[in-house]
Structure formats: structure tokens, C-alpha cells
Amino acid sequence: MRLTILGGGGFRVPLVYGALLGDRAEGRVTEVVLHDLDPARLTAVTRVLAEQAAGVSDAPRVTATTDLDEALTGADFVFSAIRVGGLAGRAEDERVALAEGVLGQETVGAGGIAYGLRTVPVATDIARRVARLAPDAWVINFTNPAGLVTEAMSRHLGDRVIGICDTPVGLGRRIARVLGVRPDQAWIDYVGLNHLGWVRGLRVAGRDELPRLLADPALLGSFEEGRLFGPDWLRALGAIPNEYLHYYYFNRETVRAYQRAERTRGAFLRDQQAGFYAAAGDPDVSALALWERTRAEREATYMSENREAAGAGERDDDDLSGGYEKVALALMRAIARGERTTLILNVRNRHTLPVLDADAVIEVPCLVDADGAHPVAVDPLPGHATGLVCAVKAVEREVLAAADAGSRERAVTAFALHPLVDSVTVARRLLDGYTAAHPGLAYLR
After folding, report:
1. What's the pLDDT score for residue 320?
2. Which of 49, 201, 250, 312 has the most CB atoms within 10 Å of its CB?
3. Of 257, 241, 235, which Cα lies nearest the Cα of 98?
């Protein structure tokens, strides 16, 4: 089976390849094709993968190419993990927003809109090429903003594109752990959009264990989200929010923390990874060992500004293990082998959330089999969540409309409608700043 990874020179590709090395079942991936626009990054990642495969006799064969059509032709699965504009673009997204006093995070608020405006045209082109060159392939989208990009691609690929994110998986795992429950024995009642969802229940043998957690302040304060949001707020919500909702619930505190930081998250990763890729080209250096050290630092500093704003302290060691590669592999296995499983994924709504139309991509538990991912019916959203989900989905739709029409007016509307942008005047200045910083936004007129 052939797997093509778009963004194959990306830093997290070794996580995916490492997961593939542990797969010994029939029908597994035997060939991995890495595609990237940067040959030097491809070379560095290929070196890491070669060290990972050392001593594994049946490791998937790895090839690399800068030709997109060549990479897609004959693919059974396509992992899309591109970053339009690179980490330098992310750093600019953050800088422009913070200069206007609003959040510049990669997927949330003004930064997420700017990233989406750059990414949607490229993702749409990829979807069209997949439909033409590999019509039977399944596309698993890692590219952020994951829900928005998945929805853009679904307009050309239908249900054969599925978005994934490891944040809901990590959240469910942490809740299960503090309740003394095995995650694989629990049903996680999770609903929302990508980076905008809530756990509303955790059921074991038909019994919802979440009320027990919400009633115990000590348990609530013992894990990442409890420290981040505070037990009182979680009890008020009656649910456990995805960590990205900290940007909404504690926006002022987070923006101040970002403004005080020596570097934004994007600037930190830009500089950190530049060092990795430069050093990984040295034949006398172990590229794998260098990658592992760099990754450990990356994971330990994740959302550090939010934890600083909340006084949440350092991340637990158990939360540094990632997980998106495991979700991707489980999804691929279920489709390729008919191994039925349940995963929280980004898929078209159909009739799952009545407040959204059938084509809106949402993030919910899905039953996965050889025919793809099927969203599971969920209870209606509470009022506070309904308003936020509908508002952010409206913003995503404006981004898609702006990208489709090349419309500056629709792009301004996307910024102005976002709950974390407080002025139409600021929205216009944001777009001015982003178009000045990103030549790739010149299509907006």
C-alpha cells in the first residue's frame, strides 16, 4: 500500500513513519512517498527516517520528490500536512495580530484567518489533483486550520477527505486517567469544531463518569485543562473544553502573555527548526537524535503562554507523547482493512448538529470502517456552545468565500465577524497588515 505525505519535509513526519514501523499486519503501508517544495527539508527528514528504519528488515520504502503530480499518482492514502508560508509566515501572522492587540494564534482568531486565506487555495488545488490523479485515494488532512481546510477539500473530494487532530484524543485520555478509567474502554462524548469543542460526558459501561469529575475540585485541578481553566469555570460550564477554548474564555490574559513573551510561538518554532534542519544536513550528526531532542523541547513549550496566564505550571510528562500519528494510523487501518473503530474526527456534518448545514465540517466521534468515517448522533449543543460554534463556522464560510472569489471584502468580513476581533476598523487594518506581509495574499482584490 502506498502512502503519500504532502509536506513530507515537515518536522512531525518521523512520528508518522515511526508508527508505521510498528505495524506488522497484512495490508500495511509498504511505500512512503514524501513530497515537499524544499529539497533540503526533504533530505533532512529522509535522513531521520533512514535512522528510524535501521535494523527493521521490512520497513516501508521511502522516496522523496518535489513533483506534486508524481507524488499523488498511484497513492492509496494521502496525508496532507502542508504549511503555506512556512513558520516564517506563522510568525508574521502572530506579529501582525498582536500589533493590533488581538490574538495571533495559528488556528484561532486573526492568525487562523490569515493562515486559512493563504492555505485554502493551495489545499483546493491539491484536492482537484487528487480527484484527477488518485480518485480512489483517501485524504487524511493534518493541515491547519484543520476543519476549515478539510471543508475546502471536501467540496472536491466529498467524504474521501477526513480531518484529524490529536487534541480531543489527548483531552479524553487525560480525563480518563484522572478518573481511573482505561481510555479504550470509555466513550468520549465530544462535539464542536476543530479547536473549538467540549467533552460533555465520559461513559463506561453505560455510566457517565464526568459528573464525578466535575464534583471533585481536587480531581479537576489535577490535569492540564483543570489547571488551565480552573475548577470553578469547568463546573460552571458542566463540560471540559478543548484547551484551545482558553483563547476565548481568557482572551485578555492570553493576549497580554503573548505580548510579554520574548518571542511568539511561531517565531520560536521558526528559529528552533531552522537550527534543526541546518544541523541535520551534517553527515557526522545523528539526525534522529537531533530530531528527538528538538521535539522534546517543542512539546514541553506547547501553549506555554496560556499556562503562564493561567498559572498552570509545566506540562505533565504524560502529555508530551503526542498522538496525532496514532489517530492517523488507526483511521487508515480501519479504512484499508475494514477494522471498525471509533475516532474523533473532522467530517461533514450531515444531520449530526441541526444548527449547521449538512456540508459543514465538524469534529465529533465517528464510526470508521471500510466505507469511511460516519459521524455519530450527538445531543444538541448547550446554548453557550451553539453561539460560539455558529459564529466561528460563519467566519470559516467567509474565508472560503473570500478564497473562492479572491474577494478582499469577504476577507475583511471574516476578520470582523470573528468573536476575538472587536472592531471592523481593526479587521481592515489586519488585512492590510497581512497582505503587506504575505505576497501569497495578493489574489485578494
Report:
1. 43
2. 49
3. 257
Spatial separation of the C-alpha atoms in residues 203 and 187, rounded to whole Å: 5
Closest by CA to 53, choosing from 329, 281, 287, is 287
Q: Kindly list the distances between the CA atom of residue 442 and the CA atoms of 113, 249, 332, 438, 445, in Å, as whole numbers in the listed order.
A: 15, 34, 37, 8, 7
- pLDDT at residue 22 in the model: 85
Query: All 3 cell numbers of residue 438?
Result: 504575505
Pairing relation of β-strands 138-141 and 2-6?
unpaired
Residues of the chain with confidence (pLDDT) below 70: 302-322
Q: Provide the whole-model pTM.
A: 0.94
* φ, ψ of residue 193 in degrees (nearest 5): -110, 170
Residue 145: asked if its preceding bond is cis (omega within 30°), the reply is yes
Inter-residue contact 307 to 313 (CB < 8 Å): yes
Please list, residue by residue across 360-388, b when 16 or more beta carbons sit within 10 angstroms of its beta carbon and e when fewer do: bbbbbbbebeeebbebeebeebeeebeeb
Q: Which sign, positive or negative, has the C-alpha torsion 193, 126, 34, 331? A: positive
What gap in Å lies between CA 106 and CA 257, rounded to an integer?
A: 16
**CA 315/CA 250 separation, integer angstroms:** 19
Residue 119: what pLDDT? 98
**Partners of residue 63 on adjacent β-strands:** 33
Q: 358 near 348, Cβ under 8 Å?
A: yes
Angle at 387 (CA atoms; ends 385, 388), nearest 5 degrees: 65
